[in-house]
Amino acid sequence: MKTVLDLKPLVAYLREAQHLSSAISMISWDQETYMPPGAGEARAEQLSALEGMTHQMRTGPAMQRLLSKWVDLKSGTLDGEWDVPSRALLREVWRDYDKSVKLPNDFIRRYGKAASISQQVWVEARKKSDFSLFAPNLRTMVALKKEEIGYLGYKASPYDALLDAYEPGMTVAQIAPLFASLKKELAPLLEKIVQSPVKPKKDFLSLSYLPERQLAFGQQVLEAMGFNFRDGRQDISAHPFTTSFHPTDVRITTRVDEHDLLSSLFSSIHEGGHALYDQGLNPDHFGTPLGEALSLGIHESQSRLWENGVGRSKPFWKHFYPILQKTFPEGLKGVDSDLFYAAVNSVQPSLIRVEADELTYNLHIMVRFEIERALIEENLPVEALPTVWNEKMQASLGLTPDSDANGVLQDVHWSGGAIGYFPTYTLGNLYAVQFFNQAKKELPDLIGSIEEGNLLPLKGWLNEKIHRWGRTYSSEELVRRVTGEALNPRYFIEYVKEKFGEIYQFS
Amino acid sequence: MKTVLDLKPLVAYLREAQHLSSAISMISWDQETYMPPGAGEARAEQLSALEGMTHQMRTGPAMQRLLSKWVDLKSGTLDGEWDVPSRALLREVWRDYDKSVKLPNDFIRRYGKAASISQQVWVEARKKSDFSLFAPNLRTMVALKKEEIGYLGYKASPYDALLDAYEPGMTVAQIAPLFASLKKELAPLLEKIVQSPVKPKKDFLSLSYLPERQLAFGQQVLEAMGFNFRDGRQDISAHPFTTSFHPTDVRITTRVDEHDLLSSLFSSIHEGGHALYDQGLNPDHFGTPLGEALSLGIHESQSRLWENGVGRSKPFWKHFYPILQKTFPEGLKGVDSDLFYAAVNSVQPSLIRVEADELTYNLHIMVRFEIERALIEENLPVEALPTVWNEKMQASLGLTPDSDANGVLQDVHWSGGAIGYFPTYTLGNLYAVQFFNQAKKELPDLIGSIEEGNLLPLKGWLNEKIHRWGRTYSSEELVRRVTGEALNPRYFIEYVKEKFGEIYQFS
Questions:
Q1: pLDDT in tens, B343-393
Q2: Which of B23, B43, B45 is the closest to A27 by Cβ?
Q3: Which of A326, A338, B273, B297 could cross-link B303 (Cys pair, CB 3.0–4.6 Å)?
Q4: How many CB atoms lie within 10 A of CB B297?
Q5: What's the pLDDT score for residue B109?
């Protein structure tokens, strides 16, 4: 039986390619954090040049030579007997390779150029709140995605080809019933919340809170989570994100608003959850799929587990609220921990996805999922989007956007062609609760330790059960291995029913 | 007559390669500024991987194919009739190519590894102030440099092959008499200064000066110099340096010490001078030699011109001293501008090069130049270095180091194999004064504008005369074109005689 050791030349090559990819990540990080404003044009040219080199390294003759020693490049069939890790490594390397070579160079260039222009037009259109400015570019992007689907191929739905880029193996046939059952439960639950006479007070969250102190508190929470500042850092950027150059160099960003006590804190916890995943990957496998995160959905499960499961929980605030109150004695004067907990978990239908609460967030995702399917599967014309969007928002959330900017133009994703990405956010929410539920079973004192501010047992459990495996297993296999069953929305549904039932007093 | 436009495919390729080189520069910048401490090992591996890729791009088959269309790869002879810029471009690209391919891959690997270890050992040896710990590694580095000379070849002296890497075209035959004539003048001048009863007071420079205010003042000076913060930035690092990713992204660093008013300021002006060169390169020629700095000596001339010619001049402080005094009213109470000017220009033989004044600095360089020649030309054994060093320091500066750390171990250069680098510092000093002298002739109101704090005429002149030409001309040609004659130490000698004669009152 052959092992990863037999793959030495391939692994060495992949590490080199990954160092180049990490250079791209660092340059992108710099672009969002420290780049002087005049450098934008040269930076775009640089990124495009380096991306061309990476693509060449990952699909060119050198790669083909190395990979074809063990894998049939056409079918992906392995040659010889391999142990589990090396079989996974070859399977996933081939998967990436196969996806990349299917796309003609000419298509990649056209796509890159169109996406770059489309994103710029989207920025302008959103500023002017005028979808018609953006429609021609979006039409181009949708056409390009359909062309891409033609190259990639699919079995049941053309949308599956797009989903697969973000959540490998996931299909419409799996997601559609999952989302339907979720919606069936969330809609009446939201109705109950909206009808409830309980309205958590939260005006105090927008008093004045010194940014430096917000950041210091966030850092304290990150340290408690086990984010390793020896192997990472936090900076400021316009939009929070996590990036990783190596498990020993994982960086998160946040933004801080004096009049929003929660924004920076929850962004730090959210990105911190992503970062723990990246810091928890096995550095010995750096550059190979065994040292890479599994999927966007699993990645998002880590951020959501920390942000919502931990950061919006009673046990967490039992320890941290007194500290927060000491940090901001004026702003939080007279706010007791129950009041604060309710404010942090207040549910309210709203127009903007990124500002949505834990519950309605998923309804926002479903609006996008339905529209994406219609665009790809049913050739819904792009022009119809504002109307369709507004109708779906009204039906799901009882609100009709007052403008395109607050409606169909709010998200950047489609402008760059990221269709099929949105569902991973809700998948992340579902995975998160299912994982957390399992952790509570396996670590009987988990809640007790969180109440004491000790978050390390949870981090250790996630390291052990999820992070260290990289892409050894598929998402489906991983969920089964960790929780003993397939992805099941029941855990999420029970969790929100119980939590919001208590807060809104109708359980 | 063919032009640069005929070289389009080569230029496009060189730009791509330069984008990769700039990625290396950014990663190195990050290493010195923001990298988390745990990332060192992965970072070293990444840099080595990317350097291998750059070397491959610049010497491999793709490069050969492109370059050989117009240049005979063996001899460097151009094919066809070319205008001045394209001739320069091809000449310099071939020069770089030829130097790179002469070194076998195996040698580059051995050298890289030995240099990396040697630098680590040097850090330890300096910490323990024990040259004998470092001697074996230095012996290896000297042997490797000799091996390198064997690959590169030379005409008159083997040391020329090393010089050429830092100051193309420069030879021992040119430098040795230049340095000798300089030394002949500096030694008696220094003697007069040491004997002078005038001893500028400078204890006030080490009072407490708030770091943030120091940085703000330095930034004000950088802005006055015309450093463009739209196309660059300043950060903090342990050792100040300048790096450039593109003329629109030039970064300098500084360090700041509460008890040293001059350290951060003069480092900012020095690095600012380097940065103006890099920001002044022609962005249309980015990636080709026409858009690159000419040599270390010319680069250093820009930093020294600003640091010493401007920053240690009376006209400069006429405008800036009142501002500095307002910034630090306590520390500079009772210090008038004459006293401050004398303190800034105080001359005193000392042990450490980087802390040396404008005059004795060159004597430090000559000690190193003589030892380097002896190592390379006369096979001076490495073991003899501490003794030789101390003797030469005593002979030149009248001081014998109290320890290896303050003597032969003080500089990082040799540990990494940078032999032949030191002379460019003094060449920079000489070029600087000769250039500045010419600027004063051509801009009759130059001093007047500096006295008003308007440094932009000087910047504009340097942009026009030096920066925008890149590597179009050799250093020798450039100096002739700008000043009408070859490099001439007379200007420097006259400058220091006049300046220090006045300060020390013996002129």
A1: 999 999 999 999 999 999 999 999 999 999 999 999 999 999 999 999 999
A2: B23
A3: B273
A4: 25
A5: 87
Give, as one character, the DSSP assignment of residue A227: -
CA distance A277 to A280: 5
pLDDT of B507 reads 65
The stretches of A285-413 forming alpha helices (DSSP H) are: 296-304, 314-327, 337-344, 361-377, 385-397
* A108: Cβ contacts below 8 Å, ≥ 6 apart: A55
Q: In what order do the strands lie in the sheet with B249-254?
A: B232-236, B249-254, B242-246
A245: CB partners within 8 A, 6+ apart: A22, A25, A26, A251, B39, B42, B46
pLDDT at B302: 98
Say which residues have a Cβ less than 8 Å from residue B89's Cβ, sequence separation at least 6. B4, B7, B11, B288, B289, B290
Give the one of A15, A36, A246 whose C-beta lies nearest to B249's C-beta: A36
Residues 6+ apart with CB under 8 A from B467: B276, B277, B279, B280, B281, B302
Active site residue B271: yes
Name beta bridge partners: A246.
A249
Find which of B13, B21, B27, B243 to mutate to test the A interface (most A CBs within 10 Å of its CB).
Answer: B27
Q: How far is B502 from chain A (nearest CA, A)?
A: 43
Q: ipTM of the predicted structure?
A: 0.93
Among the partner-chain residues A37, A46, A52, the one whose CB lies closest to the CB of B230 is A37
Q: pLDDT digits over B460-493, tens only?
A: 999 999 999 999 999 999 999 999 999 999 999 9
Model confidence over B402-453: pLDDT tens digits? 999 999 999 999 999 999 999 999 999 999 999 999 999 999 999 999 999 9
Query: In the structure encoding, which two tokens stand for residue B122, read together?
Result: 């040097």
B71: nearest Cα among A146, A397, B368, B63? B63
CB count within 10 Å of CB A12 equals 12
SS (H, E, C) A19-54: HHHHHHHHHHHHHHHCCCHHHHHHHHHHHHHHHHHH
The number of residues in chain A equals 507
- With CA atoms as reference, report the closest residue to A167 among A484, A359, A381, A428: A428
> DSSP assignment, residue A356?
-
Residues of A in Cβ contact (< 8 Å) with B231: 36, 38-39
Is any Cβ of chain B less than 8 angstroms from the Cβ of A62?
no
Compute the average pLDDT of residues A255-276: 97
Query: Is B208 in a helix, a strand, or coil?
Result: coil
Phi, psi of A91, rounded to the nearest 5 degrees: -60, -45
Q: Residues B149, B151, B152, CA angle at the centre, nearest 5°?
A: 65
Whether residue A65 contacts residue A71, with contact meaning beta carbons closer than 8 Å, is answered with: no
Interatomic CA distance for residues A21 and A444, integer angstroms: 41
Enter the tokens of residue B409. 């171990």
pLDDT bin (cut points 50, 70, 90) of residue A507 is low
CB-CB contact of B428 with B301 (8 Å): yes
Per-residue pLDDT, averaged over B237-244, amounts to 95
Instruction: Report the distance separating Cα B144 and Cα B121, nearest Å.
Output: 17
Of A434, A472, A455, the residue nearest A304 (C-alpha) = A434
Alpha-carbon distance of B450 to B459, in angstroms, equals: 11
Q: Could you give the count of Cα atoms lying within 13 Å of B283 in the half-sphere of its Cβ?
A: 15
In the chain, the amino acid numbered B321 is Y
**Helix axis angle, A8-33 relative to B40-59, nearest 10°?**
100
Contact B248 A26 (CB under 8 A): no
Phi, psi of B450 (to 5 degrees): -65, -40
DSSP one-letter code for A489: T
Tens digit of each residue's pLDDT (9 = 90 or more) over A186-197: 999 999 999 999
Which of B271, B292, B300, B372 is catalytic? The answer is B271
